[in-house]
Amino acid sequence: MSDTPDPDLLRRLNEAVGNIPKLQREIFMAHRLDNMTYGEIADRTGLTVRQVERHMARAIYKLSKQMDGRKLSWWERWF
Fold first, then answer.
1. Which of 23, 25, 42, 76 is placed for a possible disulfide with 72 were both Cys, Cβ 3.0 to 4.6 Å?
2. Which CATH architecture has domain 20-79?
3. φ, ψ of residue 55 in degrees (nearest 5)
4. pLDDT tens by residue, 33-67
């Protein structure tokens, strides 16, 4: 297995992340890239830990669906 990331995969991931709502994107990036805990994110955003959990779950759902090549339904785009 190569250490070089697949450029097509990175492009699709970047596009998928760009398609989720701003707050979900910020929470996802803070948790996955900055290694922040849900509690730290909650303190930073003013949300409860439970709200952060919900935003993460929705972001992961949307990203996994898009990475599988499926489009988000009209109602999935805003929740």
1. 76
2. Orthogonal Bundle (1.10)
3. -65, -40
4. 999 999 999 999 999 999 999 999 999 999 999 99
What residues does each domain of the chain span? 20-79
d(CA 67, CA 1): 20
**CA Rg value for the chain:** 14
CA 10, 16, 22: angle at the middle one, nearest 5?
Answer: 120
Sign of CA dihedral 67, 71, 73, 77: positive
Q: Are 78 and 24 in contact (CB under 8 A)?
A: no
pTM over cut 0.85? no
